[in-house]
Amino acid sequence: MNQDIFTDYELPASLEPYVRRILVADSAEPVEMTADVRATGYCYLGITLRGRWEGFVNGRHMFDTDLDGKLHLSGQIQDATVTVQFSGPLMQCFVELTPTGQMSLFGVPGQETLESVIPVVRSRLLERLPQDAFDACAKAETGDVLAKAAIVLLEHLAATPYPVASHVVEAVTRAEAANGSIRVDELFADLGPSMSTSRRDFQHVVGLPPKEFCRILMVNTALAWLLADDPPSLAEIAATCGFADQSHMTRAFAAFLGLSPSVSAKEMETTLARFVGDSQRRKVSPKA
C-alpha cells in the first residue's frame, strides 16, 4: 500500500473560483512508490522541491522533475494509462484547479494538457509568474512554507485572470452542482450559443467533452461515499449519484477505475484515494 504522504492545506476564499484544493507532501524519509493515476476531472499545478517525480503516459516517459524543472501543469485523463513515480525524501505541492482554473490562471486550455504535462520553466508560462513569488516557492524549506508561497503566486495570477466564456463557466457550475448527474442538454439550456458551439467550447477549456466530465464526477462522488466511515449500500450510492442502477455504477467504475465499487473501497491505494475519492468527498454527507 502506498504511503499516505499528502495532506490538504487550507485554501483562501480568494482562490476558490480557480483552485479546488492544495495537497502537500513533506517527508524527510525516503519515499519510493509508484501510483496509478485516474481521472479526477481536474487539472493540476505541481511543484516539487525535494525528491523526484516522474510521469508516464501509456508507458512513455513524459515528465521528470530532475530534467524538466520544479513546476508543471498536468491535465485531464480520458483514455490513457497514466502512472507516476515518487522517489527520495519528498517535498511537493499539488494544486488541484477548478475546471476553468487552468485557463483562467495560466491561459492554457484544458485541451492543451489532455493526457500531457507542460514543464512551466520551459514554456511561455514562466513569463506570467512574478519572480519574487517564483523564488519564494523555489526556496521553501518546509511543506507549510511551500503551500503559503504557492498561494501567493496563485493570488498574483488570480488578480488578472484570462477570460473564460460565461456559458462554459455556467455549464461547469451546473455539472458540479449536480455531481455530474445531469443531461448535456441541461448543461447548456438557455445559455445562448448553439449546442455544438457550447460542447466545443466546454471541451476546449475543460479538456474533456461535457458528457465525459459529468461521468467522472459521478464515479468520483460515488467513490467518496464508498470511502466514508459508514457508507450506504451500493444500491443506495448508485441511486444517490444518478446511476440507472447498481450494475450501471459497477460498469462505470470498471471503465474509470479498473475496479469494482466494493474492491475500490477496500483495495485502492492511499495516494490514489487521496486524489480521486477525496476530490469529491466534500460533496457527500453522512447518512441521516
Topology:
Blueprint: E1 6-9, E2 19-37, E3 44-57, E4 60-64, H1 65-68, E5 71-74, E6 82-97, H2 101-106, E7 117-119, H3 131-139, H4 143-158, H5 166-177, H6 184-187, H7 195-206, H8 210-226, H9 234-240, H10 246-257, H11 261-267, H12 270-275
Antiparallel strand pairs: 1-2, 2-6, 3-4, 3-5, 3-6, 5-7
Helix pairs in contact: 3-4, 5-7, 8-10
Can you give keywords for this protein?
seven-stranded antiparallel sheet; 39% helix; 12 helices; globular; alpha+beta; single chain; 288 residues
Could you describe the 3D structure shown?
The mean pLDDT is 91. This protein has 288 residues and is of the alpha+beta class. It has helices at residues 65-68, 101-106, 131-139, 143-158, 166-177, 184-187, 195-206, 210-226, 234-240, 246-257, 261-267, 270-275, and strands at residues 6-9, 19-37, 44-57, 60-64, 71-74, 82-97, 117-119. Strands 1, 2, 3, 4, 5, 6 and 7 form a seven-stranded antiparallel sheet that branches. The radius of gyration is 18 Å and the shape is globular. Helix 8 (210-226) crosses helix 10. The chain has twelve helices and seven strands.
Summarize the structure.
The protein has about 290 residues and is an alpha+beta fold. It contains twelve helices and seven strands.
